[in-house]
Amino acid sequence: MEQVKDDWRQMALSEAEYAMLEFAEKLTLTPSNMREADAQNLRDVGWTDRDILDIVHVCAYFNFRVRVVDGLGLEVADWQLQRARAGTARAAEIAKERGVAMPSDPWKVR
C-alpha cells in the first residue's frame, strides 16, 4: 500500500488499474480539465459507468476531507507535509514529462 501512495506508476498494475489511478490523479489535480473522454478512457479498459461513478465519489470524498482539514487550518504532522511535498514534486515531474503545465499556485504553498 505504501508503494501505491509513494509512486503507483512503479507498480505492476493492470491497464484498468493504471487508467483508474490516472483518472483520479487528474480529477484531484486539475478537475476543471476533466472531459467526457476521460470517462471514456475508463470504459475502454473495462470500467462500467457504475464503476466510474464510484471512482469519482471516492476521489471526491478524499479531496473533500483534505479541503476541510486545510480550510479549518488544522495542524498536520511533519511526515504528512513531507509526503504532500513529495507528491507535488512527483506531479511536477510527470507534468514536465508530458509537456503540460502544473496548476498555478497563487498562495505559494509549494
Structure, described:
By secondary structure, this protein is mainly alpha-helical. It has a single domain, classed as AhpD-like, CATH 1.20.1290. 67% of the residues lie in helices and 0% in strands. α2 (15-29) packs parallel to α4 (49-71).
Please tell me what the overall shape is. Answer: globular
What number is the mean pLDDT?
A: 84
What percentage of residues falls in helices of 4 or more residues? 55-70%
CATH topology: AhpD-like
CATH class label: Mainly Alpha
Strand content: under 5%
Taken together, the total number of domains comes to: 1
CATH superfamily: AhpD-like
What's the story with the biggest beta sheet? none
User: How is the quaternary structure best described?
Assistant: single chain
The unreliable regions are: none
Ends distance:
25 Å
List the helices and strands and how they pair.
Layout: H1 2-7, H2 15-29, H3 36-44, H4 49-71, H5 78-98
Gist of the model:
This protein has 5 helices and no strands. It is mainly α and 110 residues long.
Key terms:
single chain; 110 residues; mainly alpha; AhpD-like; 67% helix; globular
